[in-house]
Specification:
Elements (H helix, E strand, L loop, with lengths): L2 E7 L3 E6 L4 E6 L2 E4 L4 E4 L3 H18 L6 E6 L2 E5 L2 E12 L2 H7 L6 E11 L8 E2 L1 H6 L5 H24 L2 E13 L2 E4 L8 E5 L9 H4 L5 H12 L5
Antiparallel strand pairs: 1-2, 2-3, 3-7, 4-5, 6-7, 8-9, 8-11, 9-10, 11-12, 11-13
The structure holds thymidine-5'-phosphate.
Length: about 240
Amino acid sequence: MEKRQELFAGKAKSVYATDDPDRLILHFRNDTSAFDGRRVEALERKGQVNNRFNAFIMGKLQEAGIPTHFESLLSDDECVVKNLEMIPVECVVRNIAAGSLVKTLGVEEGQTLTPPTFQLFLKNDELHDPMINESLAETFGWATPEQLAEMKALTFRVNEVLKALFEEGGMLLVDYKLEFGLFHGKIVLGDEFSPDGCRLWDAKTREKLDKDRFRQGLGNVIESYEEVGRRIGVDFG
Ligand code: TMP
């Protein structure tokens, strides 16, 4: 497969065309962003760590029957994925209250959410990814009701698979964000799953092991990502 021109550079990943119109190359960069890109730093090894982490998780999800865009690892910090038509909606499941839920609703951080809750956000940095709902998504044509129902069901299935996986590694999956797209009309999980897009706490100490370490200036960001990976069996090469 031939790598062609860069199509798009996001805050942490760049996307390249290939000679196959159905395939893209994702390049995981070291750039680490928070607060809608207002803070960006390059953290050594992050591209490689997230590339391997994501490949491992996508493999687990695929084994569980969840369709993902992931095809294969290409290099230390690149992988080959299906070329999806992305849906500009972020799907979030929360098992424990943290982050914007605590800020916007004034609920207590750390409380277990029963049942786990589901939220939709519009993917739009300029507007700071505002919370939306299914009605708004339908009205503005961001996704159809059928697509939203499927994305919600898949996001909860991911919860079952990954909550168990992280639990085995002595961690709590607090919350996470997924993005989906269409591949020849079918809903498929896209983007990435890494400690950049989820919250993971040590089950005993509740120490934060995810990107909140960067957001909150706690240090040892990539060391924590590697620790999470080691605990669930990711091979960092
Ligand atoms: P939030 O508490 O800031 O709404 O975030 C919920 C989850 O979604 C958390 O695991 C972080 C993740 N997330 C992203 O990956 N990208 C984003 O742009 C935002 C806002 C959240």
